[in-house]
Fold:
Amino acid sequence: MAATRNDKTATIANPGMDVKKIFEAIKLAIDNKPFGYPIVVAGYPPHLREVVDMAIKENFDLSKHNIIGVVGGEGMSEGQRDLIVKQRDENGTLTRQGFSRCYSTYGASDLDVNLGYESDFEVELRKICHTNPQLAAELFDDKGSIPMIFHYDPLNYHIETNEEQHLIFTCTRNDRISPRVRYDLGDKGNVMANSDLLAILKKHGVTLKNMPRTNLPFVFVWGRGDSIVSYRGAIVAPENLGEAINRAGLNEKIAHYALFQYTENGKTFTEFMVEPKEGHDLPPNLLETLVDHMRDINPDFKKQFDECADPDGKPKLRLFEPGTSPMSVQRERYPQAKKKYIFFEKAGDEFTPDHKVLKGTVIH
Structure:
């Protein structure tokens, strides 16, 4: 979808989830509108990343134009955001082409498409939490991984949590034919008042460039049970692996990544599945590098990893040739489906039926 801001006539295109068509719609909007005209492009995070990669490959500089990404349907790591939004170094030199900005929205088809929204404040706060573990620990009750952060309107939905830390939604509007009352989406999360969050920032001496423009409360979303894995009891999200790749400076070299778990002889094994881009070599110490960054990102993972005396209990790396990973197979067979970041061994599964016959080199 491409559109303008609310004070101008809108141009809307609906190219679907075909990356080539999304790119063509962007170019068409650029050709038919004045320079600097705002264009909003909505989609899944990996699809928008592919649009940017396609533009770079064709030497089409998206950075010259006012393009704003809006993503939903799945969580987005800050590493993913950095692959969508143009990047500059400390001297202001452009280091990667991309969109002007990119924001996430939080919603569900059985509630509302838009339950929560990101602004520049949430984006900046989330990035700072990755470099300030003390702040993150207090904001998120020391849960390890950093959630998506949104503000929401309590006049639309009252949000609370139950004993399992699931978000519970009650519709507070009167325009619903079938309103939800204490509805459990299955998403793990928490809520926090605007004033409480700002007080925590002040306590830690954190001042942001982008402050909230409203006093709306915040909702933290870790996702559903099928969007995380348990490593010896520690919650590990694909975003943790994505952030580790980002910190290792390998975003431009890796096409796909995912978590993979299987059970054998009563033991559960965890693997990082990684597929490089064509023509890119990855460092020989990749597993060690990823684990080191994961330990910094997720304190619960660090504790369980450090306490694990069994070598089989340590995560392994499964490295694929370009185009051969389950992630690539899924993208080729179902280009319009949401990208999978977690795979479990399951008999009859078209992607990971048996770890023993799964392609890729396993590195311990």
User: Anything to note?
Assistant: DSSP finds ten helices and 18 strands in the chain. The longest strand covers residues 254-264.
